[in-house]
Amino acid sequence: MLHRHLPEGFTLDGLRQDRILNEAFDMGDPLKLMRLFGITEKTAMHYVGVAHPEKTAQLPR
Questions:
Q1: 8 Å CB contact between 3 and 12
Q2: pLDDT value at position 59?
Q3: Is 3 contained in some domain?
């Protein structure tokens, strides 16, 4: 029912992903993301890695 009120091209999944990413930019804490959105550790780390690539470990080349 909510999808009828969204602008064309928007989805509820897309809005949720955008909200998680926004929180990842603000917080940068995967544990808080896990608690707030009920996502897995792997998913939370993905969002933090996208939002803050400098916080992720870089393998030597």
A1: yes
A2: 60
A3: no
Q: What domain count does the chain have?
A: 1
> Which residue from 56, 50, 21 is spatially nearest to 36, judged by alpha carbons?
21
47 domain-assigned: yes
Asked if residue 59 belongs to a domain, the reply is no
Any domain includes 34: yes
Say what the pTM is: 0.80
The predicted structure's pLDDT at residue 29: 93
- Residue 29 tokens read as 């804490």
Range(s) of the domain holding residue 31: 13-53
DSSP count for the chain of H helices, then E strands: 3, 0
- Regions in the chain scoring below 50 on pLDDT: none
- Return the structure tokens found at 60: 């030597």
As a whole number of angstroms, the distance between CA 26 and CA 9 comes to 26
